Amino acid sequence: MPRLAIGPEFPRELSALAQPVRRDAVVALRRFLLNVAGAPHPERVRGARDPRVATLRLADGHRGVVVRRRDVYWLRTVLPDAAAWSYARRHRYTVNPALGVVEEWDAEALERVEPALRRSARSSGLFAPVCDGDLLSLGLDVHALPLFRLITTEADVAALEPLLPPTQHLPLAVLARGGSLAEAWRELDSWRAADDPGPIDPDDLYAALRRTPDQAAFAPDKVALDRVLGAPGWCTFLHPAQHRLAKAPRYDHPVLVVGGAGTGKTVVALHRAAYLAAHGSGPVLLVTFSQGLAEELSARLDTLVEDELVRKRIEVDNPERLALRIVADAEGRRPALVGPGARTLAQLTDEALRLMSLSTGDLLDDVEPGRKPYRHVVVDEAQDVSPAQWRLLRAVAPHAPDDLFVVGDPHQRVTDTRVALGAVGIPAEQHTLRTSYRLPQELLSFVVRLRGGGLATGLARGATDMYGYRATHNGERPRVRAYESAEAELAGLRATVESWLADGVPPGEIAVGARTTRLVGQARKALEGLDVRAATFRNLKGLEFERVALVGVAEGVVPEPPPEDPGARARILQRERSILFVACTRARAMLYISHYGRGSPFLPL
């Protein structure tokens, strides 16, 4: 029986096909898995640059391109016949000798580039100071080494990026900008999906695909196949660093994952919660910033976790509701939040912590872990958790391996909370995600300049910077529009959203944001009849959309006039800048910002 792995592009391309073609392709793949009569068979590709590449006829006029080795088939794409044959002839595939991951090369384009590099080559190439052995130690392909030796400028390296596997381009880019071999290795290490890849056999395609979770998902049967083809990509294809963090067999100490916008922190938190529910030793609590976000994460877990028993082991909540529930359980009724005898959320958090201390003993007394209500706690949007809430979260799980797993970004803080985990009794080992998979480079550069690129305190020891964040793809630059009146700005908003809908963007993939509820109300009125979400900047936190429009980003609104006191002024301005930063980074593809009068001083020039 064949062992079939699906590449990440295949489900997207399949879903774009006409329904009859899509149906026939799925039926053909099911037959292929079962190896029954009428199943498609691999057809050799004449002129292929890689003899392991073949095609499968999946539907009338459409073929899948596969890389095969013995009984292992890696399904890369589905295209019309002519395009499929062209794709199959164009590419070759390798296993990186240092990391053991699979690599795809645009071999045809590299053949066209080589003469130009040779003509411009000088007597001494850019990598002349580095010996062949050192280059090969970074996993660079021995057959491509002569080509790399022709490179003379950093611009050459940048031009080759679309044609090379990222695990080949990344070490070249580090060395080209003057980095050391050690720096190149550190960058390359971000593509390792497991701490120990095991023995690397360049002919073992199965093992290589297993080490490359962002490029391959195995479908051993019809159920698994339908799951891979139908589930959102974030459920199935984890980038290597995300996979390494989320699927680690065991952490002996609390873990803190810090990452910029779009690096997949929430995805890591969801997958870690699912992993602990399936492989851990007790109930899992997943905590996030607000009740709205908790409902969003709960729905995403319903999609991610198929096994109902495993799903029931994960409880999703926010810190305020957790404290409220602990107090309510102890007192037999819901505490009043308004009126006579009402307690503040801060008071309820303190009371919940006191009750936990009484019911489970000293916070460090974990001889009987079963006395704690949860065995594992996963925290998302951790930058906005208060010190008292951290102490409560520390108290609800025992001090034991895999107790706390925390993700956050101090630059996306929307409150005045600034607390390092070590200061509240949580000495965490820190990991950093620096690759943004959601934001295009143009948008990432814009928001880094908007945020100021400076340091942010909280969560980690010292301060967290934004140095080294990068995107994996390019896109459109954010659009900033100035209008002469509020009426003109709202008319421009409606015209923009209407054009996005006309482009075929689903209404659920469009969000409109404003700083105040008054402005949100005006935007909703202007968008009457258009079924798109409108919310305050703060209420967009943790969500993502294909396109985002932000209105009223004007001086005096973003930010409102700050107080005169220097300390309070600095805190409020930083918080307001962070809130705008969070709203801007909700967009995956396009960001539109508008104002009338003078624009916000936060907007980059």
Characterization of this structure:
It holds the Pfam family UvrD_C. InterPro entries: DNA_helicase_UvrD-like_C (IPR014017), DNA_helicase_UvrD/REP (IPR000212), P-loop_NTPase (IPR027417). Residues 538-595 form the UvrD-like helicase C-terminal domain. GO terms for molecular function: 3'-5' DNA helicase activity; ATP binding; DNA binding; hydrolase activity. It comes from Nonomuraea wenchangensis. By secondary structure, the protein is an alpha/beta fold. It folds into four domains: 3-93 and 202-230, RelE-like (YaeB-like fold); 105-190, no CATH class; 238-322 and 353-451, P-loop containing nucleotide triphosphate hydrolases (Rossmann fold, 3-Layer(aba) Sandwich), CATH 3.40.50.300; 476-596, Rossmann fold, CATH 3.40.50.300. The strands form six sheets. It has a six-stranded mixed β-sheet. Strands 11-10-12-13-9-14 form a six-stranded parallel β-sheet. The protein has a five-stranded parallel β-sheet with strand order 19-23-22-20-21. Residues 362-367 have low confidence and may be disordered. Helix content is 40%, strand content 18%. A hairpin with a 2-residue loop joins strand 3 (53-59) and strand 4. Helix 8 runs antiparallel to helix 9 (181-188).
What are the key terms here?
single chain, 605 residues, alpha/beta, YaeB-like fold, Rossmann fold, six-stranded mixed beta sheet, six-stranded parallel beta sheet, globular, nucleotide-binding, 3'-5' DNA helicase activity, ATP binding
